[in-house]
Amino acid sequence: MNAPRRLSTLLLGFMLAGCGTLSNVAPEAEVPQKAQRACGDPANRDIGQWLPAMVEEQSPGMVVGVIDARNQRHFWHFGVTDTEHRYPVNEHTLFAVGSLSKGMTAEAAAVLVAQGRLHWSDTLETLLPPSVALSRDAKKITLLQLVTHTSGLPRQNMDLPMLTAFIRYLGNGENFYSHLDSDDVVADLADFSKPGNAEPRYSNLGYAVLDYVLRYQTGQRADQLVQSLIFDPLGMHSSSFTPQKLKSYPLRAIGHAGSQPKFIPRGQVVPDWQFSGNMVGAGGLYTNTADLLTFAAVHLASTGDATLDKAIHDTMQTYYPRDKEAANIAWVTDTYGEQSITYQVGYIGGYSSYIGIDRANHFAVVVLQNSFTWQNNLGHSVLRQMLEEQRNAATCRVTTAA
């Protein structure tokens, strides 16, 4: 590695150190306080108490959606789309959701596998055009490794142009992933050397390559595949990688600075990130809380479609087990005692997003914010609180029966 590239790698690694986890910065669940309330007193008020303070401190607006153990959906919303228009946010408000896009694209790939059109064991040597130069290690990367972040590919290209673009982003908030969005992304595979550490590594580069693979293998872009294989069958009519086509787009939540970009004041509007190539399926999705709860719901119960159910089953399997950030397909799983939380998080431009499920207890939570904040802990905490409340209710039933 030459000196400029080595310096770029070190600097980018340092500045993105907080972004290096498998789940794109995983939330930590706060241990919920045990509610001191009479049996039968509803716990739903807790979220209503938490959100106003969180909105004031972290984000102009926030929407939370929950599926409870009785399969009932609940929504809480506080704040506005932005300080200029001040449209109140609700479960139908569009947000950019960044890396939650990867979950949709990976699920579309899983449908293709369930249909027999692709196989998880397919390697890049067979998945990419013969004209693409591949190192010995790159040739062996499988489709499964791409979608589970276990290929060994880095988060993004580590070179001087990327470093320069990232430094500009810190001051202007502009998209710095133009290289990954272009077809030049596959050129990074020519000198790829797999790291000695086999642990999963979160990789935007890997998902950009996945987009390229899907387009080459099917003749359709990732967003087109997601539309036909996921959104249309599930009735997710407010989700799109081309949000300008949606009627709700003019009333969308506007992104604001938060934890990032470092040199833009917190709360200031930042530019939307636009993708048109291989990063569309990795980070280009706009959706709302209601649609994401619909997506979460099909991971809690059968859809009635055998192919889609097989795809969902594949995505929920653990391919790299560990207590925290166990690798599924796009999803990751954290274990807290007897509770397992399977989730995805997304950060892009001026937005933060979370979708999490507890399959054993039939819980799901979605949290969307129009501010970039690493303190994305509410989703995990709500799922922990829901289990605590369920246990409290069970104790109340036993006490009443006695």
Automatic annotation (TrEMBL):
Keywords: Hydrolase, Signal
Stored InterPro entries: Beta-lactam-related, Beta-lactam/transpept-like, Diverse_Enzym_Activities
GO molecular function, one term: beta-lactamase activity
EC class name: hydrolase
Enzyme Commission numbers on file: 3.5.2.6
Parts forming coiled coils: none
Signal peptide: 1-25
Family annotation (PROSITE patterns): PROKAR_LIPOPROTEIN
PANTHER family linked to this entry: BETA-LACTAMASE-RELATED, BETA-LACTAMASE-RELATED DOMAIN-CONTAINING PROTEIN
Name of the protein described by the UniProt record: Beta-lactamase
Protein species of origin: Buttiauxella brennerae ATCC 51605
Native organism taxonomy: Bacteria, Pseudomonadati, Pseudomonadota, Gammaproteobacteria, Enterobacterales
